[in-house]
Design goal:
With 416 residues, the chain is mostly helical. It has two domains: 2-184, no CATH class; 197-403, no CATH class. Helices cover 67% and strands 5% of the residues. The strands form three sheets. Strands 2-1-3 form a three-stranded antiparallel sheet. Strands 4-7 form a two-stranded antiparallel sheet. Strand 5 (284-285) and strand 6 form a beta hairpin. The protein is flat, with a radius of gyration of 25 Å.
């Protein structure tokens, strides 16, 4: 009896420690995300405003920035003076901001991966994961409630849900990394292992190839963005100087641009795919032509291309080359397992997986950034998805045909 009582007590203590640890990990992710905008805003409150303004104004601003960074819709009522300076007559008309500053979402995913790995190593991994998600959701709800204000009003249900979904993605990735290292086979994996071998090969190759192709295109887009910023250094510095910000203002602008940088990379991805993107209604930035009207005074936008490109169509080769190379590498690995028509299914699967990943990310990068022309900023996700599917599927099909030599004929007999 004493041994059983001791074992039960130890089990309860381990469970309570897991719950506390998981909750702390979730709260830490929320605290880090909000602290990034809150620290410079608090310094601005103390140094520039001399503590004369209520600090809760800066707290709400930091929370609003964090929520917008996770795709939460923000309804803003412009001040009459600001509205007049921007040329908008109706100052009291609410403006909904739907664009996400994806740098905050990326940070939450990375911190979620770290939390998922740490929680998965505890004795009650499933319970800890659930506790971490619940804690993060409650924390998101509480900070969203604290940011409610007539001037800037974030969506309450989105504030509780969307950051939690982003955190859940990282948490799931982190926990899967640990389970893969420990070779834990879950019920879903056991179910998949029961499928016919050629079906598993088609599905695995399609998902793996699509993910690698999407990652490859995003890498090229990142390099292209870096080169554009480097070569447009003079224009970017000129825009910084035109803002006439002090040191703290310059730091705030730089942090805001870092939060926007993943969006810019995704816009570059849509540029490489073909349809391009817009910076305001009526504008277009694509490989073949660029037509820009008035744009926000954000220094990093000085890297945007101006005018037409004589060889802009070369950018369209990026997804084709990436899709071809990925299929060419994966082709020999599956050549002896699949028929030729099954290779065609794999090519379509790679196109679907890559286009779905690119389309989902591009959709998250676009939205409304303000009133008037700024009601549409970013790519058209459905058009980008359709273009990506065609380009990756065709390229993957050619790569598989040139690299894979099927050993199984369509009639089921082995070819010699």
């Amino acid at each position: 009896m004493a041994a059983e009582s001791g074992g039960t007590l130890t089990f309860d203590m381990n469970r309570q420690l897991t719950l506390l640890f998981a909750a702390f990990e979730a709260l830490l992710v929320v605290a880090i995300g909000i602290a990034i905008p809150l620290v410079p805003l608090t310094l601005l409150w103390g140094i520039h405003y001399g503590l004369a303004i209520d600090w809760t104004v800066f707290w709400r601003a930091a929370v609003d920035i964090w929520l917008v960074g996770h795709g939460v819709d923000m309804t803003v009522v412009l001040d009459p003076t600001v509205s007049k300076s921007l040329g908008f007559a109706a100052a009291s008309t609410p403006v909904t901001i739907t664009i996400a500053l994806l740098g905050f979402s990326l940070l939450t995913v990375l911190l979620g991966v770290r939390a998922g790995r740490r929680v998965a190593e505890t004795t009650h991994a499933l319970l800890g994961t659930f506790a971490s998600l619940v804690t993060f959701g409650l924390a998101s709800l509480i900070v969203t409630l604290s940011a409610q204000h007539p001037v800037a009003n974030p969506s309450l249900w989105q504030g509780a849900l969307l950051p939690t979904v982003v955190f859940a993605v990282g948490l799931l990735i982190g926990s899967q990394v640990v389970s893969t290292k420990s070779r834990v086979v879950g019920p879903v994996r056991r179910w998949v292992l029961g499928w016919p071998s050629h079906v598993r090969t088609i599905l695995a190759t399609s998902l793996r190839g699509g993910a690698i192709a999407a990652a490859g295109l995003l890498t090229i887009a990142s390099i292209a963005t870096m080169l554009a910023i480097i070569t447009s250094y003079a224009e970017i510095i000129s825009l910084y100087e035109a803002l006439h910000t002090e040191v703290l203002g310059g730091v705030a602008v730089t942090l805001g641009q870092l939060a926007l940088l993943p969006n810019v990379v995704l816009w570059a991805t849509s540029w490489l795919v073909g349809p391009g993107f817009a910076i305001g209604v009526g504008s277009t930035v694509s490989p073949l032509a660029t037509s820009l009207g008035p744009i926000p005074a954000i220094p990093v936008l000085g890297a945007l291309p101006i005018g037409d490109f004589a060889f802009g169509y070369v950018g369209l080769l990026a997804p084709v080359v990436v899709g071809f190379l990925v299929a060419a590498v994966l082709g020999p690995r599956i050549a002896g397992e699949l028929r030729r028509r099954e290779l065609a299914i794999v090519a379509l699967g790679i196109g679907v997986a890559a286009a779905a990943i690119i389309g989902l990310l591009v959709w998250a990068s676009a939205g409304s950034a303000g009133p008037g022309r700024l009601s549409h900023v970013g790519p058209q996700p459905w058009i980008v998805t359709a273009w990506a599917f065609v380009e990756f599927s065709v390229a993957a099909g050619l790569g598989l045909l040139t690299s894979a030599r099927p050993e199984r004929a369509d009639d089921g007999f082995t070819q010699r």
